[in-house]
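Design request, tokens follow.
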């Protein structure tokens, strides 16, 4: 192998030129090209699928769920003690991997499921009120009781059998921004009463924000809670 100073200098020069070219192509030109294409063809998605209110203020992303809670009486209260603000449509439960001290809009800081099995806490294969505290069965039963109590009004009674699964269970990621049309419709009477709106008017709002299956056959019909509440805010001018 030729290790003369001249040959070594040529090798170093070639390496530096390759480094410069690759840095320019991969670190500057390629990112600029990808960013430019994304901004032109997929502007909303490239910027985080942001949702804005009537004043143009960003209120969140259509891809990440938010909670709608009343302010805590004591900021030092434990996580999970805040009550839902029943003027707004409520999302799925957000039980997941951990507590949140950064993004106060949602109770998760990590994306993921609880990994509890469907029969966690079940007795003889059934979820009953005797389920041990902290099990999935106990959480589901408590969540169903809360959904029935919160959404029953003076003129409309919610029956336990009418509560859909997504109203009492979290999603695989724990950050699902969508609920089923059935859960959205279940909340219509309560939202209408709390905001002094006509039930049919709120029902139309849900219908207008119900998305069909992707490409007509993938997934299930769904409602983005943030988009629905943004439209509700515009309707009530809050």
């Amino acid at each position: 192998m030729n290790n003369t100073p001249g040959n070594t200098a040529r090798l170093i020069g070639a390496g530096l030129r390759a480094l410069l070219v690759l840095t320019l192509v991969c670190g500057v030109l390629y990112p600029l090209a990808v960013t430019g294409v994304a901004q032109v063809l997929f502007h909303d998605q490239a910027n985080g699928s942001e949702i804005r209110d009537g004043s143009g203020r960003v209120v969140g992303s259509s891809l990440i769920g938010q909670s709608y809670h009343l302010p805590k009486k004591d900021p030092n209260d434990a996580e999970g003690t805040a009550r839902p603000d029943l003027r707004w449509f409520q999302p799925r439960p957000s039980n997941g991997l951990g507590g949140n001290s950064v993004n106060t809009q949602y109770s998760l800081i990590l994306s993921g499921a609880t990994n509890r099995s469907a029969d966690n806490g079940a007795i003889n294969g059934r979820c009953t009120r005797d389920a041990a505290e902290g099990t999935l069965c106990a959480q589901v039963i408590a969540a169903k009781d809360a959904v029935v109590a919160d959404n029953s009004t003076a003129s409309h009674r919610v029956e336990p059998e009418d509560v859909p699964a997504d109203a009492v269970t979290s999603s695989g990621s724990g950050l699902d921004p969508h609920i089923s049309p059935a859960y959205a419709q279940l909340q219509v009477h309560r939202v209408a009463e709390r905001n002094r709106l006509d039930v049919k008017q709120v029902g139309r709002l849900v219908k207008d924000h119900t998305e069909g299956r992707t490409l007509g056959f993938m997934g299930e019909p769904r409602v983005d809670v943030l988009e629905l509440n943004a439209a509700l805010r515009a309707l009530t001018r809050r």
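Comment from the thread starter after seeing the answer: thanks! The first strand starts at residue 50 and ends at 52.
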